[in-house]
UniProtKB/TrEMBL annotation:
Limits of the HD domain: 66-169
Region entry Disordered, spans: 102-121
Protein name: HD domain-containing protein
Organism: Halobellus salinus
SUPFAM superfamilies per UniProt: HD-domain/PDEase-like
UniProt lineage: Archaea, Methanobacteriati, Methanobacteriota, Stenosarchaea group, Halobacteria
Length: 200
């Protein structure tokens, strides 16, 4: 596992995370891409879970990356309902997408000395990164910190935005729910059995 990696350029981040194209707000999209350019090398390589909790496509190499893309699909689908029900504004779905892309970027802890498995405070670690190194709204950090709900060390979701991110994460993690991935599918993920979809 790579301890850390050199920064990616923004074009490469957008290639790896095509769901960024779902974010309408240019400032939110660019800041999310900038932070993702600094993601630990392991983010692109490790399984989403070593305990077989996540979807089977997310349990192997590059599984955390796959899980992140699947989560964005669920955010997009559920976000429409939250907006139609008056729980969120359409621009809030952009913040949910930012939280989805960023939520597990410290899953294995310290980028320079990562754990072999996920760490129980990864939600809080990434929340600190957002508060200290980001111009994204505070609500994104709060959604990242509460994405685990009653599990791990972070707080429970309290706002509709936090609830959307938490609920979507639980759905995208479910063994029996296979979310498609916004295309174009990154070539490194080709052959894994992912369905490429166009959400817009």
């Amino acid at each position: 596992m790579s301890a850390s990696s050199a920064s990616l350029d923004l074009e490469e981040v957008t290639r790896r995370v095509p769901t960024l194209r779902l974010v309408d707000d240019a400032d939110v999209r660019e800041e999310t891409a900038r932070l993702t350019a600094e993601a630990p090398g392991y983010f692109w390589e490790v399984p989403a879970s070593t305990s077989n909790y996540h979807h089977p496509l997310c349990r192997g190499e590059r599984g955390l990356w796959v899980h992140t893309l699947m989560l964005s699909t669920v955010i997009e689908r559920l976000g429409d309902s939250y907006v139609d029900l008056g729980r969120l504004e359409r621009e809030d779905v952009d913040l949910a997408h930012a939280a989805a892309v960023l939520h597990d970027q410290r899953k294995n802890g310290d980028p320079t000395a990562p754990s072999e498995t996920s760490v129980s405070d990864h939600d809080l670690r990434m929340g600190r990164v957002l508060r200290e190194e980001s111009d994204l709204p505070e609500r994104v950090a709060e959604a990242v910190e509460s994405h685990m709900g009653p599990w791990y060390d972070g707080p429970d979701p309290e706002t509709p935005l936090e609830d959307l991110v938490h609920t979507a994460d639980m759905i995208a993690s479910t063994e029996t729910v296979t979310a498609g991935v916004q295309g174009p599918l990154p070539e490194e993920l080709d052959g894994l059995g992912l369905e490429e979809v166009d959400l817009r």
